[in-house]
Design a protein that fits this description.
The structure is a homodimer. Chain A is built from eight helices and ten strands. With about 220 residues, chain A is an alpha+beta fold. Chain A folds into two domains: about 140 residues, Jelly Rolls; about 70 residues, Orthogonal Bundle (Arc Repressor Mutant, subunit A). Chain A binds a DNA duplex (30 and 30 nucleotides) through helix 7. Chains A, B: This is CRP/FNR family transcriptional regulator.
DNA sequence: GCGGCTGGGTGACACAGTCACAGACGGGCC
DNA sequence: GGCCCGTCTGTGACTGTGTCACCCAGCCGC
């Protein structure tokens, strides 16, 4: 069975196109692998099959912020920018887990864009989604307080009512500094909304956090 | 002569397509006209011929930030989002000057996406450019100090060595509050880099401003 | 037990955003 | 001219954030 069957976005792809795509090899990516860094030219169009890739923006002071994450079935949009618009991208992509991905070489990619409506729709959809998510992120960074972003992130990532992450990891995800996260978490703990342990935040009052998360987000 | 000749991005468009597009009417947009607001469904794909349209993100406190500007020959990308991805966009577009634009209805737009490689490339290019500019904006907002953004904006908008704008307008463009702009401008004036008059900032030391603008941007 | 490493806490300080005002200027109106 | 009113600008106070420079507490391997 070709990997194509595992990429939902490409369901219904034309048979002729599928034949061209299906033979491309699936590459494994070890956890922690850096997929690209600023200034590097795009080698092709990447489709993620399993795992999770996180793309960060890195500031001059070393502070980082999570730009977006690539989930299975999605493509790495930044690589497309290089193929279409031409400009270098800023930001760094890191495999957050072990991953499998397919790299579509540039010439095949361009040919598919001309030949396959399904493929085109797939690429466009990915673009639209990214643009929207980046704008949403901008809105949060520009207008929302840290407390609010923190609460939202905790609720978002809670597995079994707890988040396993260091303060530094949380800080990176919401685009602030570790100390700030520590202080805010401390405040939340004092308010009885969470419990803190080394490398783990346990949620005690999800409703309270939800209230904070909505506080100045109000979208 | 059709308006098509005035849209550089569409140069080289296929004759058959041109015939379909060329007869669409050119609409005038008065200065200050609001093109769309959050939640509104996209009516079609807009191509700007003359003038300038500015798109703002608006926070819950009423603070605004300039997301991007649409220049002649460019398209309104947000409207495309609605046609492709489906989600509503946030943000508000306002005609900064009197404008002329062409509205391509949804069905024609979708047909062109399938039929015309040139049109496709035009739309894709616009997308890529927007995504990149929004990411660059995010980077500035997340990592750059107000002083730096202010200096960059002044240099950017200086006509004849002066910027005609109120502090409020400047604040909106760089995504901060009026008071902050007033204070920063005051500091720049004390440092001899600018001269302040009502509704006008005169640049006295462009090199000094350039140094500030590059300070923590370092791209 | 010891040393080093990582995660977490703290205090000090500068910058930014918000609120609440107070002046200052300009243009229209009499 | 003098007056009024709305817009633009300056200021002070206070809170939230980002950064720097530390220290402390666990944990691990040796």
């Amino acid at each position: 069975m070709s990997w194509l069957a595992r990429a939902e976005g490409l369901a219904g792809i034309e048979p002729g196109i599928a034949a061209r795509l299906g033979t491309l090899p699936v590459s494994p990516l070890p956890k922690g692998k850096v997929l690209f860094c600023p200034g590097e030219a795009a080698r092709g169009f990447t489709i993620l099959l399993t795992g999770r890739v996180e793309v960060f923006l890195i500031g001059p002071t070393g502070r980082e912020i999570l730009l977006y994450a690539i989930e299975p079935g999605q493509s790495c949009v930044q690589s497309t920018l290089g193929l279409l618009g031409g400009e270098d991208y800023t930001g760094e992509a890191v495999a957050a887990t072990g991953c499998e991905a397919v790299l579509v070489p540039k010439d095949i990619f361009l040919a598919l864009m001309d030949d396959s409506p399904v493929f085109r729709r797939f690429v466009f959809g990915a673009f639209a989604q990214r643009l929207q998510s980046v704008m949403a992120l901008l809105e949060r960074v520009a207008f929302q307080k840290v407390e609010s972003r923190l609460a939202a992130d905790l609720l978002d990532r809670a597995a079994d009512g707890a988040v396993h992450a260091t303060h530094q990891e949380i800080a990176t995800r919401i685009g602030t500094a570790r100390e700030v996260v520590s202080r805010r978490l401390d405040a939340l703990a004092r308010a009885g909304m969470v419990r803190l342990d080394r490398g783990c935040v346990t949620i005690e009052d999800a409703a309270g956090l939800a209230r904070l998360a909505a506080a100045d987000g109000a979208r």
